[in-house]
């Protein structure tokens, strides 16, 4: 019973100290934050470009006819 508890405590200690895979999670979170920011800015930029082309088309149709 004592050896079982010793092995269990050693296993728990190894789990809390082990940091393998932590960098991958941090990179994934950073990448997802960058992707979210890029998508949000692209939507804003697309709206601005759409408005600019609409104004250009309005000016062209007004001056041609």
Keywords:
mainly alpha, 2 helices
Written overview of the protein:
This protein has a domain at 21-65. It has 65 residues and is mainly α. The protein is built from two helices and no strands. It is rod-shaped and about 95 Å long.
Please render the helix and strand layout as text.
Layout: H1 2-17, H2 22-64
For the terminal residues, how far apart are their CA atoms? 95 Å
In round numbers, the mean pLDDT is 85
Number of extended strands? 0
- Name the helix and strand elements from N-terminus to C-terminus, one letter apiece: HH
- Structural class estimated from helices and strands: mainly alpha
- Give me the Rg, rounded: 29 Å
Major β-sheet annotation: none
Give the overall shape, derived from the CA principal axes.
rod-shaped
Count of individual helical segments? 2
A few lines on this structure:
91% of the residues lie in helices and 0% in strands. The chain contains 2 helices and no strands.
């Amino acid at each position: 019973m004592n050896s079982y508890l010793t092995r269990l405590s050693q296993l728990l200690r190894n789990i809390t100290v082990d940091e393998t895979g932590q960098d991958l999670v941090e990179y994934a979170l950073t990448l997802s934050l960058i992707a979210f920011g890029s998508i949000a800015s692209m939507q804003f930029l697309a709206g601005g470009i759409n408005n600019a082309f609409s104004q250009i088309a309005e000016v062209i149709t007004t001056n041609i006819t």
